Amino acid sequence: MCEVEEERGGAGAPDSFQRLWTPHRMAYIKGEGKPTGAGPEDGCPFCEIPKMDDVEGLIVARGDVVFVVLNLYPYNSGHLMVVPYRHIADYTELDPAETAELAEFTKRSLTALRKASGAQGFNVGLNLGGVAGAGIAAHLHQHIVPRWGGDTNFMPVIGHTKVLPQLLRDTRQLLADAWPKG
């Protein structure tokens, strides 16, 4: 058991494991803030975020019909989502302007992430429907996850924990500053 845990009186039987406490993840695990229904009035965070200022909402960029926001529970540092303002669930519901701007803001997100973080690759995609992994299935959002060689290590594999080296607000500012102008 590490000295800090011993000093604080630790809980449970002493063992050789170090603990990395991530209490902020409990909100995600418990589903706090998750919409209660399918409508925009049912607590949809993607409908609420655009009403906030950019720093509070972790918004990197705003367009006419979509916005780019940092994922509050990221897979990697800089994990962005491109989200239409309109509350729709399926890609086929996008109108032509939404489709075009979602694609353009995906390209700009890739450019900003490369400039700000030196990302070497990306996972880009949509999870349509709860059975496909969508945490908020009622409001379409496209994920852009930056990747680097060796970014998979023992923490997520063994510990089911991601270590993020930067506060989300700092990451948001870095990406907003790197955002390419239209």
Which SSEs are present, and which pair or pack?
Layout: H1 3-8, H2 25-30, H3 45-48, H4 54-57, E1 59-62, E2 66-70, E3 80-84, H5 96-117, E4 121-126, E5 142-147, H6 154-158, H7 168-178
Antiparallel strand pairs: 1-2, 2-3, 3-5, 4-5
Helix pairs in contact: 5-7
Describe the structure in your own words.
The structure is a single chain. The chain has 182 residues and is of the alpha+beta class. It is built from 7 helices and 5 strands. Strands 1-2-3-5-4 form a 5-stranded antiparallel sheet. A hairpin with a 3-residue loop joins strand 1 (59-62) and strand 2. The protein starts with a helix and ends with a helix.
Structural class: alpha+beta
Principal-axes geometry comes out as globular
Helix content: 25-40%
Order of helices and strands: HHHHEEEHEEHH
How much of the sequence lies in strands comes to 5-15%
Provide the gyration radius in Å.
18 Å
Q: How is the largest sheet built, in terms of strand order?
A: 1-2-3-5-4
Number of β-strand runs: 5
List keywords for this structure.
182 residues, five-stranded antiparallel β-sheet, alpha+beta, 5 strands
Summed up, what is this model?
With 182 residues, the chain is α+β, with helices and mostly antiparallel strands. The chain has 7 helices and 5 strands, in the order ααααβββαββαα.
